[in-house]
Amino acid sequence: MSSVQGERDYExxxxxxxxxxxxxxxxxxxxxLLLLDDAGRVAALNPSAARLLGRRREELLGQVLGxxxxxxxxxxxxxRRADGSRTTVEMRSLCDDGGRRWLRLRDVSTLVSxxxxxxxxxxRNSLVEGSSNDGIWVWDLKSDRAHFSARWRELIGQPxxxxxxxxxxxxxxxxxxxxxxxxxxxxxxxDGRSPRLECEHxxxxxxxTWRWMLARGAVSRASDGAARLFAGSLTDISxxxxxxxxxxxxxxxDALTELPNRALFHDRLRHALRRASRRSDYVFAVLFxxxxxxxxxxxxxxxxxxxxxLVMIARRLELSLRxxxxxxxxxxxxxxxxxxDIRDASDAVKVAERVQTELAAPFNIGGQELFVSSSIGIAxxxxxxxxxxxxxxxxxxxxxxxxxxxxARHALFDTAMHAHAVQQLEIERDLRRAVERHEMRVxxxxxxxxxxxxxxxxxxxxxxxxxxxxxISPAQFIPIAEETGLIVPLGRWVLRxxxxxxxxxxxxxxxxxACTMSVNLSSKQLNQPxxxxxxxxxxxxxxxxxxxxxxxxxxxxxxxxxxxAKTILLKLKELxxxxxxxxxxxxxxxxxxxxxxxxxxxxxxxxxVQHVGRGAENDDARIARTIVMIGRNLxxxxxxxxxxxxxxxxxxxxxxxxxxxxxxxxxxVDGDRALALLTSGPTW
Length: 684
Ligand code: C2E
Ligand code: MG
Ligand code: MG
Known about the structure:
By secondary structure, this protein is of the alpha+beta class. It is rod-shaped and about 145 Å long.
């Protein structure tokens, strides 16, 4: 800011003169204009000039202005008027085409007083300014000069070096990406389109780094509304921004793997969809990747190892992609990959294969080699999606299909799958009403004691006859019931039915120890804290003794929450119940591991028995034999599932398996026929 030139007042000294003719246009000029002759006398002036100087025209004409004029630059001077008042004038000397010298005067007194006030305020605040964290800036819009406080200069790392009195010192340091916005916001406030300036932007520090700043300010306006002075503060908000960035990062990135999370992936997918809707030649694909049996790794090696593995997988996934593609962690062991700008589905399939090959190489975790496989579902934009969630849903459906067809596979979503997905939804919908509509029945399959050849118990198996679709296999609807949680009420219903049936048989036979009843228990049921209480109630209601009820639980159900499972299993044992591991051998657990749980028996999965007796003894038969022997050594009773042939039965007998179950004896039948089997007492 320039200071008022001198403190001395300029007197206007009268002199004798002749007056040249003056162009009439100056009369109409609103600016104060004075024409000087060669001797520096006032040769002409317009009414504005007379008004500004506070004298009559005749008084001024011919006077010599004792003003030092330095070239074309403006000078500021205080003029004393005839009435004694003073005013500050900015005077600029100009030459016209004819070589005549003009003075253009401007009243800057209000500006100066504002400036003086500001100066005063600044002085008053200099202590504050010096100690405050905010830099102060003042921009005189008329003269286009700017002042920056010492603290302001400090903020940009140039506390001592002089800056020009130009607003460019600020704007030139603004980050190129922010500059236009800052300029727009300054302009908006100057033009009166915003109540005040409040603008965050990055500013280049002298060290070359970028700092986040908050500029706040307001203009003072003349009575006509024109902005005169723009003044405000500058605050370094880099710390706050960093914290905000971190927060934003946390809401868009997975903390463990640092990959984008589901929210960010959705966002990218939305962009891809928008592009696909604009450009017919743009195709993208989403790969939905789920690790096979990750839970088992997590449960057996611990969460720390599981986490390490997920991070390593994330890095491998990143490496196996092209620059434009992106990978995200959707949660747990689920990842999603967006393949940008591919030609067709076969490109996506190739990437899926490449990813699976990459993941197939062993991972070294704590000196231990781990092998991982993954199932991948693929959906492409060729299906014409509108919403990100639909793309992910179909890729997810395809992934389930891939898993279902054996692990370590990939599958491309197609319309048949869509139909299947729709059917699943319908089943889910109908399943909700099935029990109340009496569409569910419980059938009973005998379990035979191999020592006596007699039926020692039954396994309750639920049956659903759909009013339109006919019988639906439990293999189809039980997983849906588990996924939706419907298994909880359904399982309770089956349990009560089975116990009521057994009680009815006991009454008919007059024998309370006729046989046992086995009921399947899903993992969802096992997770109910009041399960033991529920079962105790059913036992009381039906009069069945705890020892007569056997619960079949899969390894994976136990391993889902091993600690919670153990607590619940112990409570069930307190009721006297028998517990058995269903489908044993299909999971990952070792017998030694299961030893930690209060288990009474093992049911060897059907797949181990299937090949027995069909030609040479193969691995499965050998494993079945081993399981039976180990189980017996651990004091567990062993049940062979899926016995269909005499040869299978003979083998199981020869290895002293305790019980057997299978079509050779009987399929699951309704309660009446089961009772008939029990009373007719066939022996095998
Ligand atoms: P699971 O508990 O392993 O039941 C044995 C399955 O093998 C039954 O199939 C049975 O019909 C079948 N099976 C028995 N013997 C043979 C044989 O000799 N050969 C062949 N090929 N199959 C045989 P199902 O009834 O279709 O049930 C399938 C699965 O659904 C069950 O496997 C069980 O996990 C589940 N499930 C059935 N009912 C219930 C229930 O009430 N609650 C729960 N949570 N799950 C149930
Ligand atoms: Mg079972
Ligand atoms: Mg089974």
